[in-house]
């Protein structure tokens, strides 16, 4: 398929472009800023465009089969961006992208939404709610097929590998590689065209980590976090104590996680606190605390 990727220089854009290239798709990239002429962008057609106004996007969309729409200000930008900033990028930008897709005859969309959709009246969540409504409007009125992906927290973790990344996976965080997996699966899911006259599909998929423990297993977690963690993740106590990972709060259980939120698009997440512990154990064995504390966020 030929895919127009808006926000190609974003966190998800940087990760998904090489995946889609490896899968054999033709890509057209768009962003506000010029992209580096290096991997993963080297050799791909690029259209510089301010999505908030949309000028130039119609040309980029010509000949494409799918729109992958990524640009947004997120919750981490709430302190530095105003309500007007959020509206212009998250709402106006989505509107103009959909208009460009419609004018180019694109009837398939993957829209990067957010779990903040549930915070309907937060500055960020409200714009994501409107964004999803724009997708649904175009489905009902213009025959658009879409998948809206709602990731949980997968922000870059800076130099706090142990808690901002690792422990976060106990409290709602999702690994970025799984987010990319959900997005790629959504693109592939939209591959086949529906037969004429069929009601176009509109899916909303929660991009969350898998449940690897039950509510019952963590019910008494706060009474003795180390013992509770050892029961769920055997062999974890030594690592938790050595690296002072903060596990005082009871871990969350993903609502609907046992049913597999990604089942509708054929994706099953694989990363969780247990896989983090495996990675930590490998770093510790290879280089001890120096290697662990030198770990840097790959995105």
From TrEMBL:
It comes from the Bacteria. Transmembrane segments: none annotated. Residues 3-152 form the NAD-dependent epimerase/dehydratase domain. This is NAD-dependent epimerase/dehydratase domain-containing protein. It comes from Actinopolymorpha rutila.
């Amino acid at each position: 398929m030929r895919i127009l990727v808006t926000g190609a220089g974003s966190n998800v854009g940087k990760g998904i472009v090489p995946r889609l290239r490896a899968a054999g798709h033709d890509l057209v990239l768009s962003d506000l800023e010029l992209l580096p002429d290096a991997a993963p962008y080297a050799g791909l057609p690029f259209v510089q465009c301010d999505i908030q106004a949309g000028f130039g996007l119609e040309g980029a969309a010509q000949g494409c089969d799918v729109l992958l729409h990524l640009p947004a200000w997120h919750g981490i930008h709430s302190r530095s961006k105003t309500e007007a900033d959020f509206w212009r990028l998250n709402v106006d930008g989505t509107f103009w992208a959909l208009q460009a897709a419609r004018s180019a005859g694109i009837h398939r969309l993957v829209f990067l939404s957010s779990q903040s959709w549930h915070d309907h009246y937060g500055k960020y969540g409200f714009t994501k709610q409107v964004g999803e409504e724009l997708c649904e409007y175009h489905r009902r009125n213009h025959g658009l097929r879409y998948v809206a992906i709602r990731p949980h927290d997968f922000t870059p973790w800076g130099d706090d590998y142990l808690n901002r990344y690792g422990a976060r996976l106990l409290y709602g965080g999702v690994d970025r590689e799984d987010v990319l997996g959900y997005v790629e699966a959504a693109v592939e899911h939209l591959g086949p065209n529906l037969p004429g006259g069929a009601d176009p599909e509109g899916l909303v998929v929660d991009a969350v980590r898998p449940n690897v423990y039950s509510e019952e297993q963590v019910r008494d977690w706060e009474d003795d976090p180390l013992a509770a963690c050892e029961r769920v993740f055997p062999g974890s106590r030594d690592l938790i104590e050595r690296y002072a990972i903060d596990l005082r709060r009871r871990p969350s259980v993903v609502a609907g996680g046992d049913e597999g939120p990604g089942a509708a698009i054929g994706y099953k997440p694989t990363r969780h606190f247990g896989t983090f512990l495996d990675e930590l154990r490998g770093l510790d064995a290879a280089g001890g605390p120096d290697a662990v504390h030198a770990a840097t966020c790959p995105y």
